[in-house]
Amino acid sequence: MPFRLIKRRRDGRFELRLPERVRTVLAESCQGMAAWLAADPDDPALWRLFPDAYPDHPDHDAFYRLVARDQLQARKLADLELIERTALADTLSAEELDRWLRGLNTVRLALGTRLDASEEPPDVDPEDPLAPMWELYEVIGVLVASISDALADELPPEGRPEATPPPGLG
Amino acid sequence: MPGMVASPVISSTAPTEVDEPDIDEVVDVERPWVVIVWNDPINLMDYVTFVFQKLFGYSREKATRLMLDVHHKGKAVVSQGTREKAELDVFRLHEHGLWATMQQD
Fold first, then answer.
1. Which of A123, A149, B49, B61 is the most exposed place for a label (fewest CB within 10 A)?
2. pLDDT (tens digit, 9 = 90+) per residue, B33-85?
3. Is A163 in contact with B91 (Cβ distance < 8 A)?
4. What separation, in Å, do the N-terminal and C-terminal C-alpha atoms of chain B show?
């Protein structure tokens, strides 16, 4: 990155160095995403936001979906709404930044699914009607990566003492 | 094979609260449950690494290795434990948009 998108201040808050026009587009994307989620939560195009938990146990999975689904949706809607509310804020708390991260990732997942994105950078014709959607997908990707790094810097690099990795990990 | 009674483990009140197991619930306690994260073309490496650090308290190094396992091998076991614990971990991973499932070891 040629410059830092996220800057941590001494008071622990974070500056989001984005121009207003970008913030406006992000807010509108989150608004659209929230409207989609609220209106049609069972849309198969949103499957990626609500994956199975138990591929081998349909009974367990049915109960998981019954209880977890509403909570997941509520959390995602709350994250998106927070981004809309704080879109023009100069600074964010760490908690707000964390929720920006999740909300933006939710939008990116929906966009990527819609675009059938692969791991390879796409070769998009500027005349392609989906070009603006690809651009938004890329911009949000840069933000997601930047915020991830900024928040990871807040965590102890050696991890938490009580964390026990699964067997097989050194 | 001991009977398995399907019952909701995630509380309907808050994601971090888990119901006490039903006294009548029969669970196969012999085999732990593992939580698997699957590779997907959308989630970014930096993001996945951070989520592993945040949710499981892994060091940056271990979280990165796990993420690379997911990326190169198609999937990786990220945690294990009782069905209760595994389901909560799956839920938290789903909250972060990761493709996670659970199965018995």
1. A123
2. 999 999 999 999 999 999 999 999 999 999 999 999 999 999 999 999 999 99
3. no
4. 15
CA A126 to chain centre: 26
User: Is A46 or A104 the better-scoring residue by pLDDT?
Assistant: A104
Least CB–CB distance from B8: residue in A67, A106, A163: A67
What's the gap in Å between the CA of A5 and the closest CA on chain B? 15
Pick the residue from chain B with its C-alpha nearest to A161.
B57
Which string of b and e fits B3-34 if b means at least 16 CB within 10 Å?
A: eeeeebbbeeeebeebeeeeeeeeeeeeebbb
The CA radius of gyration of chain B, in Å to the nearest whole number, is: 15
d(CA B27, CA B23): 11
- CA distances to A111, A165, B5 from B32, rounded to whole Å, are 36, 14, 16
Strand, helix or coil at B80?
strand
- Position B21 scores a pLDDT of 60
B residues 33-72 near A, CB within 8 Å? 34, 40-44, 46-47, 49-50, 53-54, 56-63, 65-66
